[in-house]
Amino acid sequence: MRWSPSVTVAAVIRRDSRFLLVEESPSGHNVINQPAGHVEFGESPVEAVCREVREETGRDFAADGLLGVYQWTIPGSQHTYLRFCFVGSVGEVLSGYRTDPDILDTHWLTREEVANGRLPPRSPLVLRCIDDALHGTSVPVGLLHVVG
After folding, report:
1. What DSSP character marks residue 22?
2. 3, 114, 135: which is closest to 68 by C-alpha?
3. Residue 100 burial (C-beta neighbours within 10 Å; 0-12, 13-18, 19+)
4. What angle do CA 44, 47, 53 make, to 5 degrees?
């Protein structure tokens, strides 16, 4: 059987001890996630993560590094995600910008608030990426090459 993962991107955005997360309700239950989404045809992963952060938070994103590439299969299914996760920074909310209607709110949360807060993480990738960012493991974005 051929493997066809969903290719996604996510951004870990940290200010002091807090991380920018979005609140969404993908299946009727509110969860938190990094600003994230699918790579669209013709986009590079860096272009995709900048677009997703802007759509979901109303802020421009500058990717400072590639945190990692994560593979996760939803338990009990054959649906696999291949996630390119970036670290970077954002500016202030753009004046008059309307965020994606699927995003209910944005929150600046500590790692502990993500792990033990009222809203569960959307997937195990949320905490894993935060933990990796806290350990300072990232590589230059220039390691990603788009050919053609």
Report:
1. E
2. 135
3. middle
4. 135
CATH class of 6-111: alpha beta
Q: Could you tell me the pTM of the whole model?
A: 0.94
DSSP H helix total and E strand total for the chain:
3, 7
CB 126 within 8 A of CB 107: no
Nearest C-alpha neighbor of 48 from the set 138, 117, 136, 146? 146
Task: Give residue-wise pLDDT tens across range 35-47.
Answer: 999 999 999 999 9
- Each residue of 91-116: pLDDT tens digit? 999 998 888 989 999 999 999 999 99
Judge whether 30 and 107 are in contact, CB under 8 Å: no
Residue-wise burial string across 8-25, b where 16 or more C-beta atoms lie within 10 A, e elsewhere: bbbbbbbeeeebbbbebe
Which positions ≥6 away from 6 have C-beta within 8 Å? 38, 79, 80, 81, 82
Strands (E), the chain: 6-15, 18-24, 31-33, 36-38, 61-73, 80-90, 103-109
Q: How far apart are CA 26 and CA 15, in angstroms?
A: 26
